[in-house]
TrEMBL record:
It is found in: Membrane. This is cytochrome-c oxidase. The gene is coxB. The keyword Transport applies. Residues 73-185 form the Cytochrome oxidase subunit II copper A binding domain. Its main location: membrane. It comes from Salmonirosea aquatica. GO terms for molecular function: copper ion binding; cytochrome-c oxidase activity; heme binding; oxidoreductase activity. Residues 196-287 form the Cytochrome c domain. Subunits I and II form the functional core of the enzyme complex. Electrons originating in cytochrome c are transferred via heme a and Cu(A) to the binuclear center formed by heme a3 and Cu(B).
Length: 287
C-alpha cells in the first residue's frame, strides 16, 4: 500500500510537471536555468537524514528491548540448527533431540541458540520473538516466549536454496506439565514394533542406509545427518510442514523423494513396493 502510494505520487508529479512546463507554441528560447539552490539541497538532505535517523533509532531500540542481554552467561534452553531444508531442535537440559515440530513450554522465557549446519538460514516466528540469522560456524542467541499454549508458525527468512520456501517452522507451545510429559516421552524408546511387516521395516531401516543418516532413540540408529525420526508417528506433518503426516504421503516420499522435494539430500533408494510398505508401517507406528 505504502509503496503504491509513493509510486503514484512520483508518476503523478512527473506527468504534472511534464505538462505544466512543456514547450508552448511560439517559444524558441531555452527556459530559465537553475543550477544551485543551497537552501533547498541542504533542506532535502537534512529531512531525509532525519527520517532515516528516526527509523534507525526506533529499530535499534526495539531490537534491544525484545532481545536484551542476547548472550547471557548460561547454557541455552533450546538449540535450533538450520539444515537444508529442515530444522533440528536440541534440548540441552534433557538431551531430547527432535526435528521440525518444535515443542516449548508456554509462559517461560527461553534462551534459544541458533546455528546452521550448512548455509545461512533465518529463524523467524513473528509471534514468539525477533528473527535471527543462523550463520555457519557461529552461534546467535535470541529470547523466545509463548505466553499461552498453541501452535505458532514461521518460515525460514533467508534464501537458502531450492527448497527455502518449504522450510516452514512449527512451534508447539504446551502448558509446562504437558511439555514435561512430551519431553519424557521423547526420551523413551518408541512403542514396541508391532507385527511382522513393521518388524521387516525396522530391519530394513537399520540395515539399509536409513540408519546412516537418521536417528531413532533407543535403537542403533543415531546418525545426525538427516532429521531425527524418533516418534515420527506422533508428528502432524512431514518434510518441514510440506505434507500432512499420513501413511500415503510417507509412501509417496519414500517412493521418490526428489519428485516431492527436489534437491533434498534424501536420495532415491529405489525401494520395492513391499519395502516401502514395511518402512511406512514401522515409521508411522513410532509414536
Ligand atoms: Cu533455510 Cu531459507
Amino acid at each position: 500500500m505504502g509503496g503504491g502510494g509513493v509510486l503514484f505520487l512520483v508518476i503523478g508529479l512527473v506527468v504534472f510537471y511534464s505538462l505544466r512546463y512543456r514547450r508552448k507554441a511560439g517559444e524558441t528560447d531555452e527556459p530559465q536555468q537553475f543550477h544551485t539552490h543551497s537552501g533547498l539541497e541542504i533542506g532535502i538532505l537534512a529531512a531525509t537524514t532525519g527520517v532515516m535517523g528516526i527509523f534507525f533509532f526506533l529499530t535499534i531500540t526495539t531490537m534491544l528491548a525484545v532481545n536484551d542481554n542476547p548472550a547471557p552467561d548460561r547454557p541455552p534452553d533450546l538449540v535450533i540448527i538450520g539444515h537444508q531444508w529442515w530444522w533440528e531442535a536440541r534440548y540441552p537440559n534433557s538431551g531430547v533431540v527432535t526435528a521440525n515440530e518444535i515443542h516449548i513450554p508456554s509462559g517461560k522465557r527461553l534462551l534459544v541458540e541458533v546455528r546452521s549446519a550448512d548455509v545461512i538460514h533465518d529463524w523467524w516466528v513473528p509471534e514468539l520473538g525477533r528473527k535471527m540469522d543462523m550463520i555457519p560456524g557461529t552461534a546467535n542467541h535470541l529470547w523466545m516466549e509463548a505466553r499461552h499454549p498453541g501452535t505458532f508458525l514461521g518460515t525460514c527468512s533467508e534464501f537458502c536454496g531450492t527448497q527455502h520456501a518449504w522450510m516452514r517452522i512449527q512451534v508447539i507451545a504446551q502448558a509446562p506439565d504437558a511439555f514435561a510429559a512430551w519431553e519424557r516421552a521423547q526420551l523413551q524408546k518408541p512403542t514396541a514394533v508391532n507385527g511382522a511387516v513393521a518388524a521387516a521395516g525396522e530391519t530394513l531401516f537399520q540395515q539399509k542406509t536409513c540408519a546412516n543418516c537418521h536417528a531413532i532413540a533407543g535403537t542403533k540408529a543415531n546418525a545426525r545427518i538427516g532429521p531425527d525420526l524418533t516418534h515420527l508417528g506422533s508428528r502432524n506433518t512431514l518434510l518441514t510442514g510440506m505434507l500432512e503426516n499420513t501413511p500415503e504421503n510417507l509412501t509417496r516420499w519414500l517412493d521418490n523423494p526428489q519428485q516431492i522435494k527436489s534437491g533434498a539430500h534424501m536420495p532415491n533408494f529405489i525401494f520395492t513396493k513391499a519395502e516401502v510398505e514395511a518402512l511406512v508401517e514401522y515409521l508411522e507406528h513410532l509414536d
